[in-house]
Specification:
101 residues; alpha+beta; 3-stranded antiparallel β-sheet; 2 helices; 29% helix; elongated
Length: 101
């Protein structure tokens, strides 16, 4: 059993470059940096949000699990031959997971 305690995202960033690979890597790096910063700040809320959580009968104590995003990359070639990339992080955050005992 899993329940979201902090659900975030999506985060979207763009980048423009003469080469497709550079445009995609630049946008992806920006998204990963932003997601990392957000997750680090959100981590401090976990003790407050998990207070009072009780596992259903037949389940063990809850554990906090990080749920990382899946990234979606879209690139477009512009009329001048350069590239424009958009990267979307999807949903990410922290879940409480209880396993059957």
């Amino acid at each position: 059993m899993q329940e979201w305690i902090i659900k975030l995202g999506p985060v979207e960033r763009t980048n423009h470059s003469e080469k497709k690979d550079f445009a995609e890597r630049g946008a992806l790096a920006q998204v990963k940096e932003s997601v990392g910063e957000i997750m680090e700040k959100a981590k401090s809320l976990i003790p407050l949000l998990e207070k009072g959580f009780t596992a259903p009968s037949g389940y063990g104590a809850p554990e906090v699990k990080e749920d990382p995003p899946e990234y979606e990359v879209m690139s477009y070639e512009l009329p001048d031959g350069s590239w424009f990339s958009i990267v979307n992080s999807g949903t990410f955050g922290y879940k409480l997971e209880c396993k059957r005992v």
